[in-house]
Amino acid sequence: MRLPFVGAPLTTDEGGYAEAARLWARGDTLYRDVWVDRPQGLELVFRAVIAFGSSPDVIRGAAALVGALCVVATMVLALRLVGRRAAFAAALLMATAGASPFLESFTLAGELVASLFAIVALLVFTSYLRSRTLDRLVVAGALGGCAAMVKQSAFDALLAMIVYLVWTERRRALWPVVAVVCAAAAPVVAGAFAAVSLHRWWFAVVGYRGSGDSLVTGSFVHRLDLLTGSLPAAAKGLGLLVLLGAVGWRGSPLLVRLWLGAAILGVLGGGNFHLHYYIQLVPPLSILAGAGVEGLIARHAWRTALVLAGVAVATLAFTAPLWFDGAMAQAKAIWPDDPHLQHDAAVVRYLDANTRPGQKVLVLWAAADVYYLADRAPVIPYMWRRNIEAIPGVLGRLRADLAGRRPALVAAVQPPGSLDRDGRTGAILASLYRRVAVLDGVPIYRPRQPS
Which of 111, 168, 215, 265 has the fewest Cβ atoms within 10 angstroms? Predict the structure, then answer.
């Protein structure tokens, strides 16, 4: 399911996380010299991946491997919770519908990596429920903490375990819950104190999102618009799983239902509703969908099964044409709101050919993948548009570096006025830089020599 998308452009997030990991490996300090709003866990994963090579194919290969491991781990978990036939159905559904390109599932997203930790955490937790040994409970909690250290919203397994213990054991749940929470806190505390500054780490990992980029901050109407805008594509990827999951809901294990509820909270908490957020829902939905298949077979509900088979055919009809499209057509279909992905390759080639290794460049305002693919460091530590837009002082720092002619080249992937509406950035470019090329509509600027 992922193979047809090997050549699709690297996303801004993949390239940005990979570039942050590469700069970190070369001696830069996270959260100071290179800024990313993710815990160190995700950057450690990217450091491990790019150690095998800098090609985008290596990153996409790692994503496929993680996806395969998620399928196997989910099947084993489902075997324990819903039985053999439902487990096989869950695995098949997760490996096909769950790998939908409309969820960006072929990318090395934080949600995909965190899901592997979450699934294994629940797998160990079910082992604890059988054995009641403290060490397994501690391991389950630690894995839940590791999931959150990959992606902050990946608290779903941890929350499901805690609520399950409270729900089923009442007063006896106190010490098991304490053990889970303390074990989960260990990797979080380790990450916080390993950072260059606790204040810097807290702002990047917690404060940045909480101050204006989450569901509970900013305009509710804007968040609702983002949610409704994401639902059509999400429905193409998750529609079959949701319908089968609804069939399997009644009588399904409490732990799985709690897991899905916690995963929904994680998706909502992100606030921006990027399509890869929905990857977090795939594992619990797949188990519920497997239980739904089992229920249809057991009840001989052939009419319902035929309707759902029609949904499966529609899902295939949406997806199959993309298998045969070229990389640019795939990018246009999957990321219609990110047109820069369709011409980043030309910009990368130009930056690589017209700058030296070690020289720094600037991409306005957002194309973090360009920095990674061109192997040219950014002139400022911030590689995403939202960072420049939301963090106080960053736009002023960018203007100062631009006025100081620090970047060897500037690629205006997006018009300067689209973010800096008072025109000061555009004025600096006009007075201190000259346009040396236009690539697929993207102007490239080089600093003028001081007179």
Answer: 168
Q: Domain limits at 273?
A: 3-327
pLDDT in tens, 151-173: 999 999 999 999 999 999 998 99
Residues 357 and 318 in one domain: no
Is the pLDDT at 96 greater than 80? The verdict is: yes
Report the pLDDT value the prediction gives residue 35, as an integer from 0 to 100: 95
pLDDT given at position 1 = 84
pLDDT band at 300 (very low <50, low <70, confident <90, very high): confident
Give the span between the Cα atoms of 195 and 208, in whole angstroms.
Answer: 16
Evaluate whether 241 touches 282 at the Cβ level (below 8 Å). Answer: yes
Residues present in the chain in total:
451
151 and 113 within one domain: yes
Report the pLDDT value the prediction gives residue 430, as an integer from 0 to 100.
94
State the Cα–Cα distance between residues 295 and 39, nearest whole angstrom: 41
Q: 251 and 208, same structural domain?
A: yes
- 182 and 41 within one domain: yes
**Per-chain mean pLDDT for the chain:** 93
Q: Are residues 215 and 149 in the same domain?
A: yes
Mean pLDDT throughout 93-102? Answer: 92
Same domain, 416 and 272: no
Total of domains in the chain: 2
In a domain, 218, yes or no: yes
Residue at a domain's end among 279, 296, 327: 327
Distances (CA, A) of 99 to 2, 158, 413: 7, 24, 30
**What integer pLDDT is reported at residue 215 of this predicted model?**
66
> Are 353 and 317 contained in the same domain?
no
- Whether 158 is covered by a domain: the verdict is yes
Examine the pLDDT at 213 and tell me if it is beyond 80: no
